[in-house]
Amino acid sequence: MAGVLPITRQIARSVQENKRASHDLCVSEVSDCLIFDRHGVCKTFSSLFQHNKAIIVFVRNFLCYTCKEYVEDLGKIPQQMLQESNVRLVVIGQSSWRHIEAFCSLTGYSHEIYVDPERQIYKKLGMRRGETFMETPSSSPHVKSGLVIGNLRSVWRAVNSPAFDFQGDPLQQGGALIVGPAPEVHFAHFDMNRLDHMPINWLLQLAGLQTLDFSGSHKIIHI
Which domain holds residue 196? Predict the structure, then answer.
């Protein structure tokens, strides 16, 4: 039971502490922006949340070690749990769609994933470019690697990639939305730096889902 305690303490805190002013965020202006799947097929951003609620996670880039480890934990969310609650889980990156397949193979992520290669949605929603660090360092319960080892692994993956690139703007920060049905934004969080991910259990809780133990199993936590 010792492994469960940090997560339990985390989600017991008020989620209001990290909640952005979602009522000020309008997704209508990005509704027609195009996103691309792993086959290069495009669809509109609004198609993700027209008829259901969606948790949408924007990642920095596919080479970022913190994004890789965060998405690994997103991949542990059972599909059945999402389907039973009619909630979609979506990851959006900002690379070429050709990098999606390798990223999913690397992370074990099997839910929906798309890319916004021109960063139109990132830009119009006002997501940061460049990192801002507070006096108290950010930390993520989903990132296991340290800065040096994590960056070395990112460089190694870049060098060994069939297309040697950064798989997205390395300065672009990500964020998370809970939106829908229709363009109703329930929650918005824009990352300030690479470690400022919204804890996944907070996203699940805000979307009306049960929380999970990410310490190594898929066990549901009842709180």
Answer: 31-132+140-207
Are the C-beta atoms of 167 and 61 separated by less than 8 Å?
yes
The CATH code of the domain that includes 145 is 3.40.30.10
Does residue 1 form part of some domain?
Answer: no
Sign of CA dihedral 183, 68, 211, 140: negative
- Residue 179's beta-bridge partner residues? 54, 185
Inter-residue contact 201 to 17 (CB < 8 Å): no
For residue 69, the cross-strand partners are none
The Cα 80–Cα 40 span in angstroms is 27
> For residues 179 and 201, what is the distance between their CA atoms, to the nearest angstrom?
17
Would 188 be classed as within a structural domain?
yes
pTM for the model: 0.81
Residue 179 belongs to a domain? yes
Type of residue found at 151: N
CA distance linking residue 171 with residue 131, whole number of Å: 7
Residue 189 sits at the vertex; the CA angle it makes with 188 and 193, to the nearest 5 degrees, is 160
Any domain includes 2? no
Dihedral angle, C-alpha 212, 213, 219, 222, nearest 10 °:
-60
Task: Express each pLDDT in 143-179 by its tens digit.
Answer: 775 554 655 555 556 556 655 556 778 899 999 999 9
